[in-house]
Description:
Layout (H helix, E strand, L loop, with lengths): L15 H35 L2 H22 L2 H7 L5 H32 L6 H7 L2 H17 L3 H24 L5 H21 L10 H35 L2 H35 L4 H38 L4 H10 L3 H16 L3 H22 L4 H27 L3 H26 L2 H4 L3 H23 L1 H14 L1
Helix pairs in contact: 1-7, 1-10, 2-4, 2-9, 2-10, 3-6, 4-5, 4-6, 4-9, 5-8, 6-8, 7-8, 9-10, 9-14, 10-11, 10-12, 10-13, 11-12, 11-13, 11-16, 11-18, 12-15, 13-15, 14-15, 16-18, 18-19
Amino acid sequence: MATDPYASASSARFDTHLRRQSKHSVGWSVVRFMSDQFFSFVVFVLLARLLTRADIGAFAVMAIFAEVFRTMSAAGLIQTVAREPALSKEFTDTVYRSHMGFSLIACAVILALAHPFAAFMNAPQIALPLQVLSIVLPISALGQTHMALRLRNFGHKTTALRSVASGIIGGGAAVAAAFAGFGLWALVIQRIVTEIISVILSRAAYAWTPGWAWRWAILKRNLGINGSLTATQLVYIFTSRLQELVIGNVIGIVAVGIYRTAWRTVDIIAGGAIRPFATVAMQTLARVKDDRVELCRAYQWMISKAAAISFPALIGFGAVAPLAVPTIFGDKWEQAGALAQIFAFMAPAFTLNQFASPALGALGASRSLLVLSLTQLSLTAVFTLLAAPYGVFAVAWAYVLRAYLTLPMQIIMLHRISGIGFNRTWSAIWQPFAASVVMGAALHGAMMMPGVAGGHAWLRLIMVIGGGALIYGVVLLIISPFWRAFLFKTLRELR
């Protein structure tokens, strides 16, 4: 039975009840993202081995185009479901019907622009697949409002189950199509099947039937509020994907495939480690936004837990990436392994950036978030255009440099708006960071040893990963009273 969608969200403290809700939602978000990342990883490995580097690169370029129009069609309306103090039938109907209408318009625009875009990218083979991919937008709109209503009540268990099912079925369809020789179309099939399954499960999970109580005043109000948020999301897409457009235009589609594979590998790891917490952050922080002490407590709690997972995952992977990527994906992706190692240097910036958006968004600071995002995009564009003539490795280093140049601005902005200073953030993350650096240095040294440098690749990989996990755990327990207490408490509860 679904909870009443029109219930009012009362103010809250980050007390035992809200902490328990957050833990429960984080737990199911972990299940969701770990399953997502596991199945995505398995599917991605199989497709990377079955498809060409040009196929991977072509779909990466198509996905950017589709993602931009997905964000524009949503217009920030789905996010308003979490922020609206009291829901009404008119509000939810307006969100659903407006999103559907915008999605249909976006689909029509993609159909018209697909061939000119393909010509601009010197990749005529992507025009028809991109047009077919556009139907994903109205399909997705059929279930997103339902899922937003479910998540408003911390229904992250539903999201987890939906993601597992859609990931397995969609990924299975893609692998079958790749084996059948469909090439680039295998990735299109994956996206369409995944969205269809997601919609079916989303609507089944929340017993709400959209009506026709659409109100222009509600849409106008929310479009005004969400203008900065939507622009910020678009800027974020271009900030993270602009390099692929430039690489495709300047260097070629094959280079996009190499770059995308490296970034996707790092993103899968980061997604499993950071996004379960970042996804819940908006709901949790929005409920304590009026009490800055409670807001700081909730922020520190979330970012400390995320850092304890993301730092060792990203830094450890960076140390073994030149061995791991070609071993897992195949020798044709050797360059992607070296690129992935470069991206791993972004671990601190990556983690902090994932929490800037929900923290500032929960406080209604969408304009400040837009300024930050525009600064990141501007520097990304300049650095990428300057680096592209020198190859994909130069583009990767330019992106890492940009991330650290804009990090101080993000820290200052968060402090000014929320009162959460860098000292608060650093106190929450320094112990996992220090333990991860020690682990990364040890793994890098181990990779240079003759006994590790030779031999069977899979055995070497398992050996260094296991050793890295052990080193990280031991160092963290030595330097962190909090994590020692957490371990002893967990052991007592298991007795």
